[in-house]
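Form 7-S
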Amino acid sequence: MSKFSLFFRTLSAALLALSAMAGQPQALSDWSSVTRLPPESDLRLILSNGRTLSGILVAATSASLTLNVSTGQEVHRRQDIRRVQLRGQGRRLRNALVGFGVGAGVGLVAGVGVDRSRSRDSFNIVPNAGVLVLTPIGGIVGTVIGVAWPSGGWRDVYRAP
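Output:
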């Protein structure tokens, strides 16, 4: 048996053991995932009658869920709730920083290309003008795109069986 096949067999066995230890994710039909949500969580409910409402969690018990909505506080029985969704955490700052880095990198590469093509010209006052101009422009454009990129979103916490 070669060293490579022994290595891959050992690696696959280790990965299989790790995946078995990780366990199964909790089922979406388990109401206890709703009762464990912290108060003031931003939720969206989809009720059995088709109505959808968004609000802030006040309390969740084994029988009901209390939500602060724009019109006041509403209590909904567990049997009347078809889905509970939790708003994910926004990542605007992270997206802006990633956008800045990518944009500045693209601007830098474009600037180097412009400067190389300009180096053949006899009239070249500022030798690195492409890099000096395109890098910050790329960073600004990337930051704007990163801030505008959608983040957060809704994820299901509970679905009625």
